[in-house]
Structure formats: C-alpha cells, structure tokens
Specification:
By secondary structure, the protein is an alpha/beta fold. α1 packs across α3. The longest helix is centred in the middle third of the chain and has 13 residues. It is globular and about 65 Å long.
C-alpha cells in the first residue's frame, strides 16, 4: 500500500490519553510505544482497562496506596472535597505489618471534581489520581521519539490504541501522520466500530491494523458489549480490499465467544481477508483488570469468571490452524 506523507499536520491538536506505555511488545511488531486514548463506544464487561471507556479525565482511588490519615490526611482538609465524599476509614494492616487508617471514598457522593487527585490535587501518594491527561500531537511525538533507538533496533514503532482511537479521529489521524513523517512505524489498535469515512482517513498513515473481533454473531455481540458488529466486519473487509495489513485479535471470553461454532465462522471470515491477514491472535481471558473496576466510579456490571483452560484454548486455535490460517496464542 502506497503511503502518503503529504498531510499538513496540526501538532497543536489535543487528545485525551490515559497512558503512554514504553517498551511494549504485545501491540505490534518489535519494541513499541503504545499510546492509549480515552473513550470507547463498547462496554465490554470484562474490559481490563475500564478507565478507557469514558472520554473525560476521571478520578481513580487505589486504596492500598493510601499512606493513612495519621501520616498524611491532606485530602481530608476543609475545602478539598466539596461533597464530603472522603472520610477516615477503619484500621488496616499493611503488607509491611504497620497499622494505618486509610481514607474511605464514597463514590455515591463523589462528583469527581479532582481537587483531591494527583498530580495537581492533594494526594502526594498518588492513591487519589487523575486518570487521563490532555496531550498535543507534538507532545506525544516527542515522547515517542525518546525510544527511537529501540524501534530501529527491533523493527518496532508506535501503536495508537484505546479505548477506541477512532472516536478521537482528528487527533488520531494527525498523530499517525506526524509519526509517519518522522519515519516511525505505526499500528492502530481498534475495534473498527466507526464509520468507514473515519477508518479510511487513517489508511495513508497506518502500517498495521490490530483489529479486535469479539463475536461473529451481531445479536450476541450487541447483547453483551452494547453495539452490533456489522460495521466492524464490513470495515475489516474494506481494509483488506484497500490492501491494509491486518492482525485479527480475539479476546477469548468464557461463556461468550469460546465455542467451536464461533471460531469456525471466524475462520471463514478471516479467509475472506486474503493476503491482508498477517495472523490471528487469540487473547485468553484473564482477571488482571478486575481490580481496576474498584478504583473508578462506574455503573457497569463487571464480568469475572474462571480462565479458560489452556487445553481448550489450543483446541480453538486448532480449528483455525486446520483452516490454514496463521494463529498465535498470547
């Protein structure tokens, strides 16, 4: 695919990002920097990054980081919390054997004004933290360029992820274009739940698409994650038709998409992508993100289940391999 670098980039354009992770090896080839943008139209109940779902900067409270009201207590001072959502908690014993009284946060009363939260609020321990930050395109590129030696040595680059980066489309396109103009390999990690017009804007500046496909049946997809899947599948087909390089990623969730039938239909679909398909990555469900849900204000029901046995994951991978498809289990 011919790549155009003629776009006039607006380096002052701002986007909301919740993390920039260096030395990433799971989000594309080589050693990469992954830029995680906030905001996602999907509501996956197993989401391992629930802080990615909302578009705004929000409050996180990690209680085990609180150093206690006797050693600190700055967030309890008058005027810090206008809603009175913070109070002295019960005595707990830390891993080091000390006893402290951590702060309790009443999410029902909290308005997320962020006055208590680091880096600009009253919490020096980063227990109360702003989750999300506004960056300009130029600022992200500057951060990414610090790891250029790793990209050049390993064949890596920058992956723009989320959330769903296509929902901040102007920021995402300008960022991808700026990276390409800086001669950095780019990848876009996306659900493809967007208009084709939005997806098409990224084509000249994206070397690889990491496409999440969660279920082949639209009704089941919508019932669980809140949106149908027709445009996801059609956008994937259109990317292949345009000559894009695609890695299909399948978060494999117990009692949702881990059936033989779903993987057989996935295989049929993947074959349609032809030479554009680089590989299918099976991402087994894990519970590592469950603790994050307790740190934020949310109304969603959190999915928590036993992990799928490795033997079953290998059976599902085998269905795709028997169809002649390239498969990797992560």
């Amino acid at each position: 695919m011919e790549v155009s670098q003629d776009m006039i980039v607006d380096g002052t354009l701002e986007g909301v990002v919740y993390d920039i992770q260096g030395f990433s090896v799971q989000d594309g080839p080589g050693i990469r920097t992954t830029v995680f943008e906030k905001g996602c139209p999907l509501r996956c109940p197993w989401c391992h990054s629930p802080e990615s779902q909302r578009y705004d900067i929000q409050l996180s409270y990690q209680k085990d980081k609180c150093i206690g009201v006797d050693a600190c207590g700055l967030c309890l001072k008058q005027g810090v919390c206008p809603e009175g959502a913070l109070s002295v908690g019960d005595v707990v014993t830390t891993l080091g054997g000390d006893t402290i009284r951590p702060v309790e946060l009443d999410w029902e009363r909290c308005s997320e004004c962020l006055r208590c939260a680091a880096p600009n609020g009253a919490c020096p321990a980063n227990a109360l933290l702003e989750w999300g930050k506004t960056y300009t395109v130029d600022e992200v590129v500057e951060i990414a360029n610090r790891d250029r030696a790793f990209y050049e040595h390993s064949g890596g680059g920058v992956t723009v992820s989320g959330g769903e980066p296509l929902t901040q489309i102007d920021f995402t396109v300008n960022l991808l274009a700026a990276l390409k103009q800086a001669d950095v390999d780019t990848a876009l990690d996306t659900t493809l739940f967007a208009t084709w017009d939005a997806v098409e804007r990224t084509l000249p500046y994206t070397d690889l698409y990491l496409v999440d496909i969660k279920h082949m049946h639209s009704k089941e997809h919508e019932a669980v994650v809140g949106v149908p899947n027709e445009c996801i599948l059609e956008n994937t087909r259109l990317l292949a038709k345009a000559g894009a390089r695609i890695r299909v990623r399948v978060p494999t969730i117990p009692h949702f998409n881990d059936s033989d039938e779903n993987f057989e239909e996935l295989g049929v679909f993947a074959r349609e992508l032809g030479e554009s398909l680089q590989e299918i990555q099976i991402l087994p469900y894990h519970t590592l993100g469950v603790a994050k849900w307790a740190r934020i204000k949310h109304q969603n029901k959190v999915f928590e289940a036993s992990m799928i046995p490795d033997e079953r994951i290998q059976q599902l991978a085998g269905i795709l391999k028997e169809m002649g498809l390239p498969v990797i289990v992560h």
